[in-house]
Design brief:
This protein has 288 residues and is mainly beta. The chain folds into 2 domains: 75 residues, PDZ domain (Pdz3 Domain, Roll); 193 residues, Beta Barrel (Thrombin, subunit H), CATH 2.40.10.10. It is 8% helix and 41% strand. It is built from 3 helices and 21 strands. Strands 16-17-18-21-20-19 form a 6-stranded antiparallel barrel. The protein has a 5-stranded antiparallel sheet with strand order 9-10-15-14-11, with no helix packed on it. A 4-stranded antiparallel sheet has the order 4-3-5-6, covered by helices on one side. It is elongated.
Protein backbone atom coordinates (compact mmCIF):
# COMPACT_ATOMS: atom_id res chain seq x y z
CA UNK A 1 0.00 0.00 0.00
CA UNK A 2 1.18 3.54 -0.66
CA UNK A 3 -0.15 7.08 -0.67
CA UNK A 4 -0.94 8.45 -4.13
CA UNK A 5 -1.18 12.04 -5.36
CA UNK A 6 -4.20 13.37 -7.19
CA UNK A 7 -4.35 16.04 -9.86
CA UNK A 8 -4.65 18.60 -7.04
CA UNK A 9 -1.22 17.47 -5.70
CA UNK A 10 -2.80 16.32 -2.46
CA UNK A 11 -1.97 12.88 -1.03
CA UNK A 12 -4.73 10.25 -0.79
CA UNK A 13 -5.07 6.76 0.66
CA UNK A 14 -8.19 5.26 -0.99
CA UNK A 15 -7.55 1.91 0.76
CA UNK A 16 -7.61 3.49 4.22
CA UNK A 17 -10.54 2.27 6.36
CA UNK A 18 -11.53 -0.20 3.62
CA UNK A 19 -10.52 -3.19 5.72
CA UNK A 20 -8.17 -4.52 3.03
CA UNK A 21 -4.85 -5.81 4.39
CA UNK A 22 -1.59 -7.13 2.97
CA UNK A 23 -2.05 -10.74 1.86
CA UNK A 24 -5.73 -10.40 0.92
CA UNK A 25 -6.74 -11.70 -2.50
CA UNK A 26 -8.97 -9.50 -4.69
CA UNK A 27 -11.42 -11.70 -6.62
CA UNK A 28 -14.16 -9.36 -7.90
CA UNK A 29 -14.74 -5.69 -8.72
CA UNK A 30 -18.39 -4.65 -9.06
CA UNK A 31 -19.24 -8.39 -9.23
CA UNK A 32 -16.88 -8.92 -12.20
CA UNK A 33 -14.29 -11.64 -11.66
CA UNK A 34 -10.69 -10.40 -11.51
CA UNK A 35 -7.94 -12.89 -12.42
CA UNK A 36 -4.88 -10.69 -13.05
CA UNK A 37 -3.49 -7.23 -12.41
CA UNK A 38 -4.27 -5.98 -15.94
CA UNK A 39 -7.97 -6.72 -15.42
CA UNK A 40 -7.84 -4.92 -12.08
CA UNK A 41 -6.12 -1.88 -13.62
CA UNK A 42 -8.68 -1.73 -16.46
CA UNK A 43 -11.56 -1.92 -14.01
CA UNK A 44 -10.10 0.85 -11.81
CA UNK A 45 -9.56 3.11 -14.83
CA UNK A 46 -13.06 2.51 -16.16
CA UNK A 47 -14.53 3.60 -12.80
CA UNK A 48 -13.77 7.27 -13.59
CA UNK A 49 -13.37 7.86 -9.88
CA UNK A 50 -16.72 6.41 -8.80
CA UNK A 51 -16.99 4.05 -5.83
CA UNK A 52 -16.26 0.42 -6.69
CA UNK A 53 -17.48 -2.66 -4.85
CA UNK A 54 -14.53 -4.94 -4.01
CA UNK A 55 -14.77 -8.61 -3.00
CA UNK A 56 -11.64 -10.09 -1.46
CA UNK A 57 -10.63 -13.26 0.37
CA UNK A 58 -8.78 -13.59 3.67
CA UNK A 59 -8.11 -16.96 5.31
CA UNK A 60 -10.80 -18.57 3.15
CA UNK A 61 -13.48 -15.99 4.05
CA UNK A 62 -15.08 -13.78 1.37
CA UNK A 63 -15.30 -10.14 2.46
CA UNK A 64 -16.72 -7.05 0.79
CA UNK A 65 -15.79 -3.38 0.84
CA UNK A 66 -15.65 -0.35 -1.45
CA UNK A 67 -12.86 1.82 -2.88
CA UNK A 68 -12.97 5.24 -4.53
CA UNK A 69 -10.14 5.57 -7.12
CA UNK A 70 -8.24 8.85 -7.38
CA UNK A 71 -7.30 10.47 -10.70
CA UNK A 72 -3.55 11.15 -11.01
CA UNK A 73 -1.41 13.44 -13.18
CA UNK A 74 -0.87 10.75 -15.82
CA UNK A 75 -4.64 10.70 -16.43
CA UNK A 76 -5.12 7.28 -14.82
CA UNK A 77 -6.98 6.23 -11.70
CA UNK A 78 -5.34 4.50 -8.76
CA UNK A 79 -6.30 3.09 -5.37
CA UNK A 80 -2.85 2.89 -3.75
CA UNK A 81 -2.61 -0.91 -3.64
CA UNK A 82 0.43 -2.82 -4.88
CA UNK A 83 -0.95 -6.06 -6.29
CA UNK A 84 1.00 -9.18 -7.29
CA UNK A 85 -0.47 -11.81 -9.57
CA UNK A 86 2.61 -13.94 -10.37
CA UNK A 87 5.62 -15.44 -8.64
CA UNK A 88 8.65 -17.24 -10.06
CA UNK A 89 11.78 -18.88 -8.75
CA UNK A 90 14.47 -21.50 -9.34
CA UNK A 91 14.38 -24.80 -7.47
CA UNK A 92 14.88 -28.54 -7.87
CA UNK A 93 12.29 -31.08 -9.02
CA UNK A 94 12.29 -33.87 -6.43
CA UNK A 95 10.56 -36.83 -8.04
CA UNK A 96 8.30 -37.90 -10.90
CA UNK A 97 5.65 -40.65 -10.81
CA UNK A 98 5.69 -42.34 -14.25
CA UNK A 99 2.32 -44.04 -13.68
CA UNK A 100 0.31 -40.81 -13.43
CA UNK A 101 2.83 -38.19 -14.66
CA UNK A 102 2.68 -36.39 -11.33
CA UNK A 103 5.70 -34.55 -9.94
CA UNK A 104 6.75 -32.89 -6.69
CA UNK A 105 9.30 -30.13 -6.20
CA UNK A 106 11.04 -27.95 -3.58
CA UNK A 107 10.00 -29.79 -0.41
CA UNK A 108 8.59 -26.49 0.87
CA UNK A 109 5.87 -24.16 -0.34
CA UNK A 110 6.20 -20.90 -2.27
CA UNK A 111 5.93 -18.08 0.26
CA UNK A 112 4.91 -14.49 -0.42
CA UNK A 113 8.04 -12.42 0.38
CA UNK A 114 6.00 -9.56 1.89
CA UNK A 115 3.43 -11.43 3.99
CA UNK A 116 5.56 -14.55 4.60
CA UNK A 117 2.44 -16.65 4.01
CA UNK A 118 1.91 -19.57 1.65
CA UNK A 119 0.70 -18.29 -1.73
CA UNK A 120 -2.71 -19.63 -2.77
CA UNK A 121 -2.23 -20.41 -6.47
CA UNK A 122 -4.81 -20.86 -9.20
CA UNK A 123 -2.38 -22.26 -11.76
CA UNK A 124 1.29 -22.41 -12.65
CA UNK A 125 3.95 -23.86 -14.90
CA UNK A 126 7.18 -25.76 -14.34
CA UNK A 127 9.87 -24.95 -16.87
CA UNK A 128 13.47 -25.90 -17.45
CA UNK A 129 16.05 -23.42 -16.17
CA UNK A 130 19.40 -22.31 -17.53
CA UNK A 131 21.90 -22.17 -14.64
CA UNK A 132 23.99 -19.03 -15.04
CA UNK A 133 26.21 -19.19 -11.95
CA UNK A 134 26.46 -20.29 -8.33
CA UNK A 135 26.97 -17.74 -5.56
CA UNK A 136 28.91 -19.68 -2.94
CA UNK A 137 27.44 -19.66 0.56
CA UNK A 138 29.24 -18.84 3.78
CA UNK A 139 28.16 -18.87 7.40
CA UNK A 140 25.71 -16.04 7.99
CA UNK A 141 25.19 -15.53 4.26
CA UNK A 142 23.65 -18.47 2.34
CA UNK A 143 24.45 -18.67 -1.36
CA UNK A 144 22.19 -19.32 -4.32
CA UNK A 145 21.97 -20.81 -7.76
CA UNK A 146 21.34 -18.05 -10.28
CA UNK A 147 19.26 -19.18 -13.21
CA UNK A 148 17.15 -17.93 -16.07
CA UNK A 149 13.89 -19.33 -17.42
CA UNK A 150 13.85 -17.07 -20.47
CA UNK A 151 13.53 -19.15 -23.62
CA UNK A 152 13.40 -22.42 -21.70
CA UNK A 153 10.92 -25.29 -22.20
CA UNK A 154 7.59 -25.59 -20.38
CA UNK A 155 7.47 -29.15 -19.11
CA UNK A 156 4.34 -29.24 -16.99
CA UNK A 157 1.61 -27.55 -14.99
CA UNK A 158 1.38 -26.81 -11.27
CA UNK A 159 -1.92 -27.33 -9.47
CA UNK A 160 -1.02 -27.22 -5.77
CA UNK A 161 1.27 -25.25 -3.45
CA UNK A 162 1.62 -26.84 0.00
CA UNK A 163 3.96 -26.58 3.01
CA UNK A 164 5.60 -29.78 1.70
CA UNK A 165 6.25 -28.61 -1.85
CA UNK A 166 4.60 -27.75 -5.14
CA UNK A 167 2.82 -30.42 -7.17
CA UNK A 168 1.68 -30.84 -10.73
CA UNK A 169 1.76 -32.92 -13.90
CA UNK A 170 4.55 -33.26 -16.46
CA UNK A 171 3.72 -33.32 -20.16
CA UNK A 172 7.18 -32.85 -21.72
CA UNK A 173 9.35 -35.52 -20.12
CA UNK A 174 11.97 -35.48 -22.87
CA UNK A 175 13.25 -32.05 -21.77
CA UNK A 176 14.27 -33.49 -18.39
CA UNK A 177 16.40 -36.37 -19.75
CA UNK A 178 14.88 -38.73 -17.17
CA UNK A 179 16.10 -42.31 -17.06
CA UNK A 180 12.70 -43.97 -16.72
CA UNK A 181 14.37 -47.33 -16.01
CA UNK A 182 15.89 -46.00 -12.80
CA UNK A 183 13.06 -46.15 -10.28
CA UNK A 184 13.40 -45.57 -6.53
CA UNK A 185 11.04 -47.06 -3.95
CA UNK A 186 9.97 -44.62 -1.23
CA UNK A 187 11.26 -45.32 2.27
CA UNK A 188 9.02 -44.87 5.30
CA UNK A 189 10.47 -42.70 8.05
CA UNK A 190 11.19 -45.68 10.32
CA UNK A 191 13.47 -47.11 7.61
CA UNK A 192 15.76 -44.05 7.61
CA UNK A 193 19.06 -44.41 9.44
CA UNK A 194 21.56 -41.90 10.81
CA UNK A 195 24.74 -41.68 8.77
CA UNK A 196 25.66 -41.78 5.11
CA UNK A 197 23.24 -40.82 2.33
CA UNK A 198 23.30 -39.09 -1.05
CA UNK A 199 21.59 -36.07 -2.54
CA UNK A 200 20.95 -35.73 -6.25
CA UNK A 201 21.34 -32.17 -7.45
CA UNK A 202 22.13 -30.06 -10.50
CA UNK A 203 24.71 -27.35 -9.92
CA UNK A 204 25.79 -27.00 -13.54
CA UNK A 205 23.71 -27.30 -16.71
CA UNK A 206 23.42 -30.89 -17.86
CA UNK A 207 25.25 -32.30 -14.84
CA UNK A 208 22.92 -34.02 -12.40
CA UNK A 209 25.12 -35.75 -9.84
CA UNK A 210 25.04 -37.58 -6.54
CA UNK A 211 26.80 -35.95 -3.59
CA UNK A 212 27.66 -37.32 -0.14
CA UNK A 213 25.72 -36.12 2.91
CA UNK A 214 25.28 -37.26 6.50
CA UNK A 215 21.92 -37.70 8.21
CA UNK A 216 22.60 -36.17 11.64
CA UNK A 217 19.15 -36.17 13.26
CA UNK A 218 15.72 -37.66 12.51
CA UNK A 219 12.52 -36.20 13.97
CA UNK A 220 10.55 -39.38 13.48
CA UNK A 221 7.37 -38.13 15.21
CA UNK A 222 7.21 -34.77 13.43
CA UNK A 223 4.07 -34.35 11.31
CA UNK A 224 3.78 -30.58 11.78
CA UNK A 225 6.25 -29.12 9.29
CA UNK A 226 8.85 -30.04 6.67
CA UNK A 227 11.80 -30.09 9.09
CA UNK A 228 11.91 -33.86 9.37
CA UNK A 229 15.69 -34.39 9.42
CA UNK A 230 18.93 -32.48 9.88
CA UNK A 231 21.47 -33.23 7.16
CA UNK A 232 25.08 -32.17 6.65
CA UNK A 233 26.87 -31.75 3.33
CA UNK A 234 30.12 -33.76 3.46
CA UNK A 235 30.98 -34.04 -0.23
CA UNK A 236 34.23 -32.16 -0.92
CA UNK A 237 33.34 -31.40 -4.55
CA UNK A 238 29.97 -29.90 -3.61
CA UNK A 239 31.48 -27.90 -0.74
CA UNK A 240 34.05 -26.49 -3.15
CA UNK A 241 31.33 -25.48 -5.62
CA UNK A 242 28.65 -24.14 -3.26
CA UNK A 243 30.05 -23.95 0.28
CA UNK A 244 27.12 -26.08 1.43
CA UNK A 245 23.39 -25.82 0.84
CA UNK A 246 22.38 -22.89 -1.38
CA UNK A 247 19.05 -21.51 -2.53
CA UNK A 248 17.94 -23.44 -5.60
CA UNK A 249 18.95 -26.81 -4.12
CA UNK A 250 15.63 -27.01 -2.27
CA UNK A 251 13.90 -30.17 -3.40
CA UNK A 252 17.10 -32.10 -4.10
CA UNK A 253 16.14 -35.76 -3.49
CA UNK A 254 17.92 -37.72 -0.77
CA UNK A 255 18.73 -41.38 -1.38
CA UNK A 256 19.73 -43.96 1.22
CA UNK A 257 20.12 -47.71 0.65
CA UNK A 258 18.61 -47.39 -2.81
CA UNK A 259 15.43 -45.69 -1.59
CA UNK A 260 14.07 -42.12 -1.76
CA UNK A 261 13.98 -40.95 1.85
CA UNK A 262 13.45 -37.18 1.56
CA UNK A 263 14.32 -33.83 0.03
CA UNK A 264 16.35 -30.80 1.11
CA UNK A 265 14.18 -27.91 2.31
CA UNK A 266 16.14 -25.29 4.30
CA UNK A 267 19.69 -24.17 4.98
CA UNK A 268 20.86 -23.22 8.47
CA UNK A 269 22.16 -19.68 8.14
CA UNK A 270 24.80 -20.00 10.87
CA UNK A 271 26.30 -23.13 9.30
CA UNK A 272 25.55 -23.48 5.59
CA UNK A 273 26.81 -27.07 5.50
CA UNK A 274 23.75 -27.99 7.62
CA UNK A 275 20.09 -27.95 6.64
CA UNK A 276 16.70 -29.52 7.05
CA UNK A 277 15.02 -32.15 4.92
CA UNK A 278 11.45 -33.39 4.68
CA UNK A 279 10.42 -37.06 4.72
CA UNK A 280 9.69 -38.39 1.22
CA UNK A 281 6.59 -40.14 2.53
CA UNK A 282 5.10 -36.74 3.50
CA UNK A 283 5.70 -35.37 0.00
CA UNK A 284 4.19 -38.47 -1.63
CA UNK A 285 1.05 -38.21 0.52
CA UNK A 286 0.44 -34.73 -0.90
CA UNK A 287 0.99 -35.73 -4.53
CA UNK A 288 -2.64 -36.45 -5.54
Amino acid sequence: MSEIYGTDNNGYKPYENSGIEEGDVIVRIDEQEITCTSELTDKINSSKGENMSVTYVRDGEFLKTSLKPIKTDDNTYKVGLWVRDTAAGVGTATFYDPKKNGFASLGHGIIDPDTEKLIDISSGEIVTANILSVIKGENGNPGRIQGSIEGEQTIGTIYKNTPYGIYGYLNNISSLFIDTNKLYPVALRNEIKLGDAKIISTIKNGQTKEYDIDIEKIYINNNIDNKSMIVKITDEELLKETGGIVQGMSGSPIIQNGKLIGALTHVMVNDVTLGYAVFAEMMVKNLY
